[in-house]
Amino acid sequence: MAKNFTAEEAQRLAAQWELPHAQRVCPSCGHVGMRVYYHMYHSVNGDRFITYLWCPVCHAFSGSSGPPRGRKVLNDPLASMDPQDLLALDANMEKMLKTLDRLWEQGKLPQERPA
Ligand SMILES: [Zn+2]
């Protein structure tokens, strides 16, 4: 079941920031190979750059969002999704991660790393 990393797990994950995501160790279950998904959320208040980082085995995750600061999201398989539908999906993180895992297995993820 999807769960946020604890503060201590997040710290151990942050310590691996130099490694490619595929080589990072899940601080929750020890699986090697974290997954990441980037999405640009457009709203009247401006764009938000959203990052989901998760473990495909235990579904421990972290989500963050911030101003784009020039970053662009390349080849987003959910780009054409209705923003309201995406918000609903985001509200059910287990469903969100299952969707992302499916896209991963279909080869539609991972994306290129945002510039
Ligand atoms: Zn894990």
Quick recap of the structure?
This protein is α+β, with helices and mostly antiparallel strands and 115 residues long. The protein has helices at residues 7-14, 83-90, 93-105; strands spanning 3-4, 35-43, 46-54, 60-66. It has one domain.
**Helical segment count:** 3
The main pleated sheet reads as: 4 strands, mixed
Subunit arrangement of the protein: single chain
Structural class: alpha+beta
Count of structural domains: 1
Give the distance, in angstroms, between the N- and C-terminal Cα atoms: 32 Å
Strand order, largest beta sheet: 1-4-3-2
Tell me what the structure shows.
The protein is α+β, with helices and mostly antiparallel strands and 115 residues long. It has one domain. Helices cover 25% and strands 23% of the residues. The protein contains three helices and four strands; from the N terminus they run βαβββαα. It is globular. The structure holds zinc ion. Zinc ion is lined by residues 26, 28-29, 31, 55, 57-58, 60. Residues 26, 28-29, 31, 55, 57-58, 60 line the site of zinc ion (ZN).
